[in-house]
Amino acid sequence: MHVSLRQLKVFEAVARHLSYTRAAEELHLSQPAVSMQVRQLEEEAGLPLFERLGNRILLTEAGREVYDYGRTINSALQEMEEVLESLKGVSRGRLHLAVASTVNYFAPRLLAIFQQRYPGIGLQLDVTNREQLVRMLYDNAVDLVLMGVPPTDMEVESEAFMENPLVVIAPPDHPLAHARAISPARLVDEVFVMREPGSGTRQTMERFFGERGLTIRHGMQMTRNEAVKQAVRSGLGLSVVSLHTIELELETRRLVTLDVEGFPDRRQWYLVSRRGKRLSPAANAFREFVLTEAALIAPPIFLEAGATLSHMPSPGR
Ligand code: PGA
Fold first, then answer.
1. CB within 6 Å of ligand 1 — which residues?
2. From residue 52, how far is each of 9, 45, 93 by CA, in Å?
3. Residue 79 has what pLDDT?
4. Phi, psi of 218, deg, nearest 5
């Protein structure tokens, strides 16, 4: 049998999504290219791997066998890569990181220092929302992830490394800008600019109000923190964002944080990897670096009512 790794990879994606279209999207291929790879694999196998049921596709028995073997081959390849990485040692390794779009407000600062310290390490950084990060962990497609809400339905190691305070933001001329101890219930009269459903920030915000039995009014939905901030500045509503994303706007007074009871909602940033994953020396070095130094290099800053920029007071102080 002449089966190529590429055919197996394409087949695995189609079998996982049970959709040629979604597999094509994930692999950045055209749908005919995906169909062709699957057809070639079926020819090699001498059996159909998918069957059609109406407009759905299902795996045949042969398809399920190929899927299982494909996963075994894939994890052996992954293991080989990990072993080779560890033989290269920390000075020549490669490191694939993925971070939440919100983390990207401070990730470049960390990476710049890390890269200076280990100039031989080849770094790859993906920036995306929580939902995609969870998928990357699930697919074992990344060494380490920095995110705000680690998955609970998957075996992962997650270690908190820095505070992630979430705050309610408003334009400086908002009627509540100078109000003190605003009750969260008061905010149901306001409209909120929302992040997309896959966002960890949105999930945390919905949990905050949900736990208090409150339903907030959704206004516009935006997939980027930058767009959310612009919308709030333009008076399209309030929003909840990580303090890390608004350093500049607080400094220049383009946005203010509202004094809402329960806020800042003191969350944490987490360093996450799949449980049991063998971390390469490069990944281990990065893990050490983040756990010991991130909070010193990029702590959240908080603008008190007095308008001076200061470090966020910790709850104990
Ligand atoms: P996100 O990031 O809102 O961009 O998903 C924050 C998080 O992971 O909690």
1. 100-102, 129-130, 147-149, 195, 199-201
2. 21, 18, 45
3. 84
4. -85, 130
